[in-house]
Amino acid sequence: MIKLNLPEDSELDRSSGTVVLEDEPQVKEPPMYQVLLLNDDYTPMEFVVYVLQYIFNHDHEKSTQIMMAVHSRGKGVCGIFPKEIAEMKSHEIITMAQAHEHPLISEIEPLTD
Ligand code: TYC
Question: Using CA atoms, how far apart are residues 102 and 35, in angstroms rounded to an integer?
Fold first, then answer.
């Protein structure tokens, strides 16, 4: 018996016998965003460290490093996420800061490679 090696159903237009080669499914990575923390003169260092542990799950040492980098350079990256998650985390920082009456500010920025 001769066995024809026909393409899968999705690739064969049976009315014309034409083989339609579909594009490979494109698995696209979502655009990524940096969550930034901005320095100010009033938010207590320990509060910033606490927020970094709570929102980003960084350990105490890493949180202290990020906080000190922001304190001395003015701005720093807390983490990199897809846009909606970055927005949520940035918003959470501001909400926590406001609840404690600290002027701490966060913003997001698209990551360009
Ligand atoms: N500069 C603040 C202080 O001296 C500490 C601080 C660090 C505030 C990082 C905000 O994003 C910040 N108390």
Answer: 18
pTM of the model: 0.79
Q: Is 55 in the pocket of ligand 1 (CB under 6 A)?
A: no
For atom 2 of ligand 1, the residue with the nearest CA is 41
User: Which has more confidence, 6 or 53?
Assistant: 53
Are 32 and 54 a contacting pair, CB within 8 Å?
no
| Domain 32-110: which CATH number of 3.40.980.10, 3.30.1390.10, 1.10.10.10, 3.40.50.300 | 3.30.1390.10
| Residue 26: partners with Cβ closer than 8 Å, 6 or more residues away | none
